[in-house]
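Board work, copied verbatim: Nucleoid occlusion factor SlmA
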Amino acid sequence: MAGRPVDHRRRAELLDAITDYAVTQGFSELTWRPVAAAVGVTSNTLVHHFGTKEQMFQAVLQRLRERLVVATGDMLTDTPDLAAAARSTWEWTSDPDRGPEFRLFFAVYGRALQAPQRFSAFLEQVVSDWMGSLCKVQGPDVDPATAAQRATLVIATIRGLLLDLLATGEHDRVHDAAEAFLESL
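↓ predict structure ↓
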């Protein structure tokens, strides 16, 4: 006897609610009972829509990534060059309202580095998501290897600055360092 089919609209609604929960509560709280209670459903409902806890977790990672890619992709398409793209990216990522999302992002990043087989999709996409956009804003006249090198420097520097900001909360010091980097572009 086959079970009832998954309502994909309802699954998407649940996934958004679970992702919001993960952003506020953290990575370690993604277990059936707390998640079910937080989003107002039963654990069985979550199992029906996601299968396993691992599948739910992977769906949350994908949704978080989609949110970040959409937001940064839209932002980067409206910038005239690499310096403007880097500045827009820094301003958006360092906004205190984004702190919970990026805390979760860095928690997942750290976990992915410890278990690369389990998080291979995340690791494959974590740089490529921004790399293409940052290479593109440099224009067609920039050698692709040079564009990739510059984009890598921007990605690594912004992520490092953001990690420092989230770890220390030293807004002025980190923003001064970010400003020095952005002016060098």
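The two ends are 63 Å apart (CA to CA).
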